[in-house]
């Protein structure tokens, strides 16, 4: 019989000393788990861990499947809550105090500038990571049944993340913040009938002032975090109830009508009710393909959390968050730009307010939410791009739409309706602009792929790739290629870029 090494014996004694006492058990209820039963019990009894299943499918742990984007988004949100709570000790939402409080964080409060940098860069990172997470979910077909509604919740979380960052943008009360919110609130006012009401509700008046600052502050520190925590809770709960993360179907599936059922020899079945097929939870239970969440999932999450904190800390230490001069309503910058994640919309608004402020946002939101209910074919769930054909369609969709966007932008720059016919009716401006034309091309292109392949999934891949590529190109154009009066410039010609 093998004997334990002195090192192993010492480790067990140290663990026992820390966990096998009355104080530790009153907090954690159980000691350090050293067998599968205790590992499962730890997951059930811990407040923070019980959201995870006791066992996790090995496919869900593959780094190249999820890239950890969902859990990174959660950790960024936690970091934002912590740093935001600390910043509230040094901030007063007043137009007379806000900017000076930012300066105090920079020059008076110990490590105040690092704290503000952490909060600012975590906010930007969360916008990017949540967007990438949504792309991962789409391209792995994780929106399909029974996860349709969880995809809708994810879209709402993406919108709430944008609003969280947008409301926080105003709080420093510098020129960048003031005019970015001025432009952003103007875009929000474009929808007919309700646009002005939305803008007034946001700003508490007609201009960006004290009323706007206090409203944005309340939304940023109370309303939106509360909404996001509720949505996250439902999101995580639905993941559990839908059988965990998506993955390719098991080799043994429900039999077709009239065929005999085939069951796994590794499972025990009991007939309790006559039913058609199996539920997602039952079908997902494959003990031979699962590992205990403690330690496999929990320790991976811990490593990811340490990595996120380390990267953000390095960035916050070496790169200061932007802070321009005090907000001055009488001296607007030229050009005044929206926050970077709204620059794509601002670019399209420059072509047509109706297209950029109404048609494109409405088409994007409605399209994203309805995709899982239109693409009802279960093919490709849990597999990147579904198949080799899906990879080719995605690649070609991206390669085709890039020159289309560039050509439409060039034509609009030199041959826009108002340049050719100065007195042209607004309806022609709204119809013949890159934003409106692209939506028509997206619809035609995706329907063509759908008909050609006979697969709704292939059509959805093309449509989403068109949208994603165009969104990134227009964001890039708004960020680097627009100068005074929103005229086209080359990046090396710019004297100052936000």
Textual characterization of the structure:
The chain is mostly helical. It is 63% helix and 1% strand. It starts with 5 loop residues before the first helix and ends in an 18-residue tail after the last helix. The mean pLDDT is 86.
Write the SSE topology.
Layout: H1 6-19, H2 22-28, H3 36-45, E1 55-57, H4 63-66, H5 69-87, H6 98-107, H7 112-139, H8 148-169, H9 175-188, H10 195-203, H11 210-241, H12 280-284, E2 290-292, H13 293-318, H14 343-351, H15 353-374, H16 388-415, H17 417-420, H18 426-431, H19 434-453, H20 456-480
Antiparallel strand pairs: 1-2
Helix pairs in contact: 5-7, 5-13, 6-7, 7-8, 7-13, 8-11, 8-15, 14-15, 14-20, 15-20, 16-20, 19-20
Précis, in short:
The chain has 498 residues and is an all-alpha fold. It is 63% helix and 1% strand.
User: What's the CATH H-level homologous superfamily of the largest domain?
Assistant: Cytochrome Bc1 Complex, Chain C
Residue windows where pLDDT falls under 50 for at least 5 positions: none
Helical fraction: 55-70%
**How many structural units, i.e. domains?**
2
Report the order of strands and helices. Answer: HHHEHHHHHHHHHEHHHHHHHH
Q: Report the radius of gyration as a whole number of Å.
A: 26 Å
What is the highest CATH level, the class of the largest domain? Mainly Alpha
Mean pLDDT across residues: 86
The best one-word shape is: globular
């Amino acid at each position: 019989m093998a004997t334990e090494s002195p090192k192993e014996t010492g480790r067990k004694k140290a663990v026992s000393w820390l966990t096998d006492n009355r104080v530790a058990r009153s907090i954690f209820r159980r000691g350090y788990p050293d067998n599968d039963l205790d590992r499962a019990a730890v997951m059930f009894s811990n407040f923070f861990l019980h959201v995870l299943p006791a066992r996790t499918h090995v496919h869900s742990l593959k780094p190249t499947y999820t890239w950890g984007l969902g859990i990174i988004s959660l950790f960024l949100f936690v970091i934002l809550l912590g740093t935001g709570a600390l910043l509230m000790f040094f901030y007063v939402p007043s137009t007379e105090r806000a900017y000076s409080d930012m300066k105090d964080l920079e020059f008076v409060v110990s490590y105040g500038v690092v704290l503000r940098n952490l909060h600012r860069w975590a906010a930007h990172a969360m916008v990017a990571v949540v967007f990438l997470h949504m792309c991962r979910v789409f391209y792995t077909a994780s929106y399909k049944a029974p996860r349709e509604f969880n995809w809708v919740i994810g879209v709402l979380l993406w919108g709430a993340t944008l609003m969280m960052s947008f409301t926080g943008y105003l709080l420093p009360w510098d020129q960048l913040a003031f005019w970015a919110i001025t432009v952003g609130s103007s875009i929000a006012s474009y929808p007919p009938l309700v646009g002005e009401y939305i803008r007034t509700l946001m700003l508490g008046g007609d201009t960006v002032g004290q009323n706007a600052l206090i409203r944005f502050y309340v939304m940023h520190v109370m309303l939106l975090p509360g909404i996001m925590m509720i949505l996250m809770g439902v999101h995580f709960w639905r993941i559990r109830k839908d059988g965990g993360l998506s993955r390719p179907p098991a080799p043994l599936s429900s039999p077709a009508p009239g065929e005999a059922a085939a069951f796994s020899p590794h499972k025990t079945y009991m007939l309790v009710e006559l039913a058609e097929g199996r539920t997602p939870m039952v079908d997902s239970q494959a003990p031979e393909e699962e590992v205990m969440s403690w330690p496999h999932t929990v320790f991976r999450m811990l490593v990811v959390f340490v990595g996120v904190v380390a990267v953000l800390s390095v960035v916050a230490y070496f790169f200061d968050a932007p802070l321009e001069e005090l907000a001055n309503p009488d001296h607007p910058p030229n050009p005044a730009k929206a926050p970077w994640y709204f620059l794509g919309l601002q670019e399209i608004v420059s072509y047509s307010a109706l297209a950029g402020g109404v048609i494109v946002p409405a088409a994007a939101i409605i399209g994203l939410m309805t995709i899982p209910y239109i693409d009802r074919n279960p093919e490709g769930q849990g597999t990147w791009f579904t198949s080799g054909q899906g990879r080719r369609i995605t690649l070609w969709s991206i390669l085709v739409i890039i020159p289309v966007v560039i050509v439409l932008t060039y034509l609009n720059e030199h041959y826009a309706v108002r340049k050719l016919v100065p007195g042209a009716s607004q309806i022609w401006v709204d119809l013949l602009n890159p934003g409106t034309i692209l939506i028509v091309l997206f619809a035609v292109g995706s329907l063509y792929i759908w008909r050609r392949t006979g697969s709704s999934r292939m059509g959805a891949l093309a449509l989403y790739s068109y949208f994603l590529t165009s969104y990134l190109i227009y964001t890039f154009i708004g960020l680097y290629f627009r100068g005074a009066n929103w005229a086209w410039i080359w990046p090396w010609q710019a004297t100052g870029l936000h």
